[in-house]
Amino acid sequence: MDKAILQEYMDACELVKETEREIQKLNRKKKTVVQTNVTGSMHEFPYVRQHFKVQGTTFTVKEDSHLRHKEKILEQQKAKAEQVKQQVEEWMLTVPSRMQRIIRYRYLEGLSWQQVAAKMGRRATADSVRMELNNFLKTD
């Protein structure tokens, strides 16, 4: 495991959130129903005036097909991002606790090296924490 996969993990987490929002938008659009009242009468005598409620979506069958295809692609994108997340989370279980904390603070929470050092305590400095992680990733 290296720094690149940790960066990819962060992107995958955000991608899952963004994709879920996009899917929700698509679902709201698909569920939008327009309703109106129309008036008509029989074709033959006696011409009896009748009122009807007509409802439906605001998009065509082709647009509906496009929405369904886009939703399928978004679901695949989300699944792939979740797979990356799971891979990194499983790897994190094999990492010593100190490294888990450093990785979580730096890559998952996005803290600066100085902030990571402050959270780690024990007179840690930004450089010492950074080097500790670099050495760990080289041997892993």
Question: Keyphrases for this structure?
Answer:
140 residues, mainly alpha, 2 domains, two-stranded antiparallel sheet, 5 helices
Q: How do the helices and strands follow one another from N- to C-terminus?
A: HEEHHHH
Spatially, the strands of the biggest sheet line up as 1-2
Rg, alpha carbons: 28 Å
- The chain-level structural class is mainly alpha
Strand content: 5-15%
Total strands: the figure is 2
Helical content class = 55-70%
Query: Largest beta sheet, briefly?
Result: 2 strands, antiparallel
Per the principal axes of the C-alpha atoms, what is the gross shape?
A: rod-shaped
Q: What's the number of helices? A: 5
Q: How many domains comprise the coordinates?
A: 2
- Low-pLDDT segments, ≥5 res: none
Output mean pLDDT.
85
Give the CA-CA distance, first to last residue: 7 Å
